[in-house]
Design goal:
binds N-carbamoyl-L-aspartate; 317 residues; four-stranded parallel β-sheet; alpha/beta; five-stranded parallel β-sheet
Length: 317
């Protein structure tokens, strides 16, 4: 195991060996989760607190399940009902929770960089469950695991990421991860939804689905992140679906065995055709959700090992 991190804040600082370590351990947790006794003792005695300042279904549920399956004491903070509403700052809330001796803090926040800031203030391991449009590392890792299991490798693949790239932390973390693993990355979407200076990321950019999907092994669709848009970025959802929504006809430009991915929540008929999303011969969307639990178990297990080692050495009080 090479992953020596104190926190998991993003894909950016990880090496390709770190990524492989997490994925290899995740494979073991997939087996555990498919077996009769979905339980291990990896986090026994540890306390995990989930703080979600933004709505979440899959990510929060899978972090909770992951912690419970590893034997941690898991607490979900209801951030809607918390003192944040009374004006307490993120840092004050974090410091109060820190005083209760958590070992793992799982944080989702609408502001890019908020989770990194919080990690500097507490003395436990922090996992970023999505910060603004910055990073969503466990999503990129679960996507990587899904791809590696479906394609048998995570190198030399052509991966098309389509839709609202500009507002998507999922796209950003995936671009970083897939780039580190030496894949060819294509971004497809309207110019209004492409981040500025995207060419610095070593990707190819298209505004035409047919051209961008040509020969793709993996087609990753993204939701329009309306909550992060100020103003109109597309003429209409109908027009958007016509040009950028994935259906069987557009998918025919990709390789015949190309897989279809979506992190959820999905808007059927906006970025993806509902029938295609449910087609188990092409879509791996449900596998992504399954892999999410295993990846979060692996990430928390590795961070807990590092935490215990650091405490044993007296490096981290
Ligand atoms: C993503 C997120 O929250 O960034 N969802 C998720 O974690 N499964 C993508 C999205 O909200 O569109």
């Amino acid at each position: 195991m090479t992953f020596r991190g104190k926190h998991l804040l993003g894909i950016e600082p990880l090496s390709s060996d770190d990524i492989r370590s997490v994925l290899d351990l995740s494979d073991q947790y997939v087996d555990l989760n498919r077996g009769p006794v979905k339980h291990s003792e990896a986090l026994t005695g540890l306390t995990q607190i989930n703080m979600f300042f933004e709505a979440s279904t899959r990510t929060q549920a899978s972090f909770e399940l992951a912690g419970k399956r590893l034997g941690a004491d898991v607490m979900n903070m209801s951030m809607q009902a918390s003192s944040i509403k009374k004006g307490e700052t993120l840092i004050d809330t974090a410091l109060s929770l820190n005083a209760m001796h958590p070992d793992l803090l799982v944080v989702r926040h609408p502001h890019s960089g908020a989770v990194n800031l919080l990690a500097e203030k507490v003395n436990c391991a922090v996992l970023n469950a999505g910060d603004g449009r910055h990073e969503h590392p466990t999503q990129a890792l679960l996507d990587a695991l899904t791809i590696r299991r479906a394609k048998g490798r995570l190198q030399r693949l052509t991966v098309a990421i389509c839709g609202d790239i500009a507002h998507s932390r999922v796209a950003r973390s995936n671009i970083l991860l897939l780039g580190k693993m030496e894949n060819r990355i294509r971004l497809i979407g309207p110019p209004t939804l492409m981040p500025a200076q995207i060419d610095q990321f070593g990707v190819e950019v298209f505004d035409d689905m047919a051209k961008g999907l040509e020969g793709a092994d993996v087609v990753m669709m993204l939701r329009l992140q309306k909550e992060r848009m100020d103003g109109a970025f597309i003429p209409s959802e109908r027009e958007y679906y016509h040009r950028f929504g994935l259906d069987a006809e557009k998918l025919a430009h990709a390789k015949p065995d190309a897989i279809v991915m979506h992190p959820g929540p999905m808007n059927r008929g906006v970025e993806i055709d509902g029938v295609l999303a449910d087609d188990i011969n092409r879509s791996v969307i449900q596998e992504q959700v399954e892999m999410g639990v295993a990846v979060r178990m692996a990430a928390m297990d590795l961070l807990a090992r590092n935490l215990r080692a650091a405490k044993a050495e007296g490096v981290w009080a």
